[in-house]
């Protein structure tokens, strides 16, 4: 059983030598114990709990936890045998149902009629300590919000027609089939879904600048830069002008050296 008290004796190991002509004595040693859950007494072979065991641990597969043990005889040279202690962990009701990550923040479309969205909870425990869950909204929710049905893994959160656009913080109590649960916060956004079926998507798109707008701004900046360069080139172009001379009334063309 998970959560067994530290120090509890789980099993006493024994070994047998098929070579009956040699009287053997044995010592026991622990091999792989991924989360250091047990101790093994070298002389007696007693396997005891060293750490609180949790069935929901990532090291537990199909409610079982494996420990490798070695038994060594007193021969010269000593021989070693290998065995596996398989610990079957019974479940206890030590986890509460919690809203899934996608259900902690939900979005509901604004409408003249009722509208709804789904919410889901999960429990790491096995039946009968998990679903079906019981959902209950708390606080000022009359003629505003309700849940239908109020039992199951996934239920409908219904917005009544007199709830307008905005952000709402709701409190919801979720209990497992044994009544073990907690009060959790639920964030709800009500928004217009006329343009986009999901107002979540609509909000995300609305907060991002469109690619066409970025393109227009970039083109305008490039065009401005071109005009500035042209103006600069024209201002630096060599000028020609006419000056009179004393020797002749004619006019000569002189290039500027600027």
UniProtKB/TrEMBL annotation:
PROSITE patterns on file: CADHERIN_1, CADHERIN_2
MF annotations from Gene Ontology: beta-catenin binding; cadherin binding; calcium ion binding
Chain segments annotated as transmembrane: 211-234
Keyword Membrane among UniProt keywords: yes
Major localization class: membrane
An example Gene Ontology biological process: adherens junction organization
SUPFAM superfamilies noted in UniProt: Cadherin-like (SSF49313)
Pfam family, one: Cadherin
CDD domains: Cadherin_repeat (cd11304)
Keywords from the UniProt entry: Calcium, Cell adhesion, Cell membrane, Glycoprotein, Membrane, Metal-binding, Repeat, Signal, Transmembrane, Transmembrane helix
Coiled coil: none
This protein's name: Cadherin-like protein 26
Species of the source: Bagarius yarrelli (Goonch)
Native organism taxonomy: Eukaryota, Metazoa, Chordata, Craniata, Vertebrata
